[in-house]
Design brief:
By secondary structure, the chain is α/β, with parallel strands linked by helices. It has two domains: about 70 residues, no CATH class; about 100 residues, Metalloproteases ("zincins"), catalytic domain (Zincin-like), CATH 3.30.2010.10. A four-stranded mixed β-sheet has the order 1-2-4-3. A three-stranded mixed β-sheet has the order 5-7-6, covered by helices on one side. It binds zinc ion.
């Protein structure tokens, strides 16, 4: 789950910013943020995301993408195979999940916000396919109705995850410590969402 929207960065060269890029025929989305290392990530739809520190030169990023080409293609194939196997939710599923989201979210927030010690500025249900939840810079939290295709214990985890982002707008060790404090078994719930259990 990728929660924090990328930080828009003004840099002098206008091609050197977050956004879609292409290296030797390989398309990827570059997301620059205040992090220390480069990371490659294959999304469930098979697309490639490169996370980069704010000022890593593009040639360094492109070199990494080139170097990891085999790995990227292998992961992409796996992601696409997995996506094909996953049944697509029907319109009835969506209606059912949206109703469930509306019914359950207020109670979940009420239950976990005091434990986290953070209250959202607002709650919205979205149709996002690539993320189950998000938290804006203004501390509005969003949840995808698709989250409610999973057992309720997964919705509980994503609620805790997004509430913890109100305290830590990143995935730093401090953020994960907070998640673990409120929900010690969160990793098990994460695995269910990732289709690993
Ligand atoms: Zn997150």
């Amino acid at each position: 789950m990728n929660i924090i929207p990328c930080i828009a960065v003004n840099v002098k060269r206008d091609n050197d910013k977050s956004g879609p890029r292409k290296e030797k025929g390989m398309k990827y989305t570059l997301i620059r943020s205040q992090r220390r290392t480069l990371a490659l990530e294959i999304r469930p739809d098979g697309s490639l995301v490169v996370r980069s520190p704010l000022y890593t030169p593009l040639r360094e990023i492109d070199a990494l993408v080139s170097e990891k080409r085999d790995w990227i293609e292998r992961c992409r194939r796996l992601a696409l195979e997995r996506a094909e196997k996953r049944p697509q939710p029907t319109e009835e599923d969506e209606a059912r999940c949206r109703a469930l989201a509306r019914e359950k979210l207020p109670g979940l927030i009420e239950r976990y916000a005091p434990l986290v010690g953070a209250y959202p500025a607002g709650v919205t249900v979205t149709g996002a396919a690539s993320r189950f939840g998000s938290c804006s810079a203004k501390n509005r939290v969003c949840f995808s109705w698709r989250l409610f295709l999973y057992p309720m214990e997964c919705a509980e985890y994503v609620v805790v995850h997004e509430l913890c982002h109100i305290l830590h707008h990143d995935h730093s060790p401090a953020f994960w410590r907070e998640v673990a404090r409120v929900m010690p078994d969160y990793e098990r719930r994460q695995r269910i969402l990732r289709g690993l259990e």
